[in-house]
Prior knowledge:
The protein has 358 residues and is an alpha+beta fold. It is 21% helix and 36% strand. Residues 310-331 are annotated as: Disordered.
Amino acid sequence: MPHHITDNESNTEELAEGSRSILLNIASQLTKGMDLHRVTLPTFVLEPRSMLERITDFMAHPEFILPISDIDDDTQRFIAVVKWFLSGWHIKPKGVKKPFNPVLGEFFRCRYNYQDGTEAFYIAEQVSHHPPASAYFYTCPQHQVVITGDLKPKSRFYGNSVASLMQGTINFILPSRHNELYQVKMPNMYARGVLFGTMTLELGDASTVRCVSSDLICEMDFQTKGFFSGQPNSVVGKIKRESTQEILYEISGQWSGELFIKNTKEDEKPDLMVDVRDYVKYPLQVPEHQEEKESRRLWAKLTEGLMANNQDMATDEKTKVEDEERALRKDREAKNIEWKPRFFDVDGDDYKFKGLDK
């Protein structure tokens, strides 16, 4: 059994005074509600991986993904997709950390070899720099499932907290047998206690899972902890028939622990939907030979500095990558070269994986 992490163990962090003073210095230059994307954050707040790799946390539990296409009942299939989505949030580093902001054209690819002999493939690319956007594509062909979408985070400064507004859509697709599309909108992330108090990471606000063809929607509310009371990491949700607004199921619990589901037609107590602490992250395989723009090679020295807790080295290496990126951008502008994504086609506000057309 994996180690059960308590909420206080994983979601909070006491900052050293030196670290706190750096954040205070940055904060003194900011105005409330300001977009933080152009602000260079100190390396001690970084998790040692790129956002393009961080997205794979939603593919971390194949036991929730692979069986879905075999479920015959529309509603049970929908519940299974909701369960998969809610189980993707508990994997994160200790404390309050954020992944590296990917540079334009950076990509991350990996494969999964599953215990039933099937395999899955994942690729993500940074498809826009201003505003930042990451596009990703995952497929397990034998189980007939595709997960694709984009992430367009916007950071905002609110005094003692920082918000990451998680714009973009996850598309969970069952292409052949059911020909279904589930569209998922994510909650927002908040780092509280940035300047004083204990730093805490929370999810907040509304989130939805929607399948138009089966007329079902799950409306969820990720609740941030009250100042003096309230359970951390709470989420409540209602699965409804969208055309009539009839509530079929109610969901409650913690995305970091136990989640419960109740059939509104029955008077019995809620059933345990999932206890995410019982599941560990499934290993992914990354190619040994990395191209220059692949995340792990691009950020290798920064990662090395963070792992050794050498913040000076980490800062230098982060600056090197960002300076080189600025030089490339200036060069493109001088030569009037338009940058285009390598793995995705731009379709309005959406990004479509090119590999499907071959």
